[in-house]
Specification:
Blueprint (H helix, E strand, L loop, with lengths): L13 E7 L2 E6 L8 H12 L5 E14 L4 E11 L4 H15 L7 E10 L5 E14 L4 E5 L3 E6 L3 H5 L6 E15 L7 E12 L4 E5 L3 E6 L4 H7 L3 E13 L3 H8 L7
Antiparallel strand pairs: 1-2, 2-3, 3-5, 3-7, 4-5, 6-9, 6-11, 7-9, 8-9, 10-13, 11-13, 12-13
Amino acid sequence: MAFTINNLKDNSNVVIKEQLGGFSIIEYKEDLSTTSRYEAETNFFMSKSNMRNKQLMIELNNSEVMLSAGAMQYMIGNIEMTSGIKGVGGLMRNMLSSAATGTSAVKPLYKGTGTIMLETTYKYLWLIDVDNDHIVIDDGMFLACEASLDISVAARKNVSSAVLGGEGLFNLSARGKGIIALEAPIPSEEAIVVDLQNDVLKVDGNFALMWSNSLDFTVEKSGKTRMGSAVSGEGLVNVYRGTGMVWLAPLMNYRNSLLQPSGPTS
């Protein structure tokens, strides 16, 4: 069995932004399918603002990957799709995980040899090589991964981090060895990675996108006393303590504030 995909990698409007294993991030320089002046102007400014359509391509070679439900656009080759659920017990566990993390209960598995194209997105795509590690992922970011990774639910180690931190009691986690693709709110070039060695990171806001499961996550006062917290103007902060890594999106809260409607003017 053989196939050729024409006008994709050899398209002058397409850039291969990153490749890792069988995963490739495709970016379209411009949206060429404009039918009006308004669409043309919109596409021009979106392109200049680094807001371009992206697509994940996965090339299988007698291998297996897991996708987020509904992510597949089309696939070519000798590829078999299964639900990834083993019996009624597996479905119940997946449904509980889905309710806890806000993700789909079914993450289909694709096995064989061929090419899978995922749906296009204006969000940013990250490829991460999880090398015998265990990372926790912010809700809604999982897109695809090699089946060698164990995708499960990581529970908060204490209730305060969920109730006070606004993060929820559970998150998806990836453990083991393999490649994972994430759909992120910022480009990977903008992410700040903090490597802690038996140290403490305090974050004023919910803009940690990933962190090592080895870290203890709590929510604490920014100062040792109520007066100290009041003087600092920070109040409560998210605290990551121990040895591990944290990926931060430092501009995300600023962007979110720009999207908030302004109050009435006098």
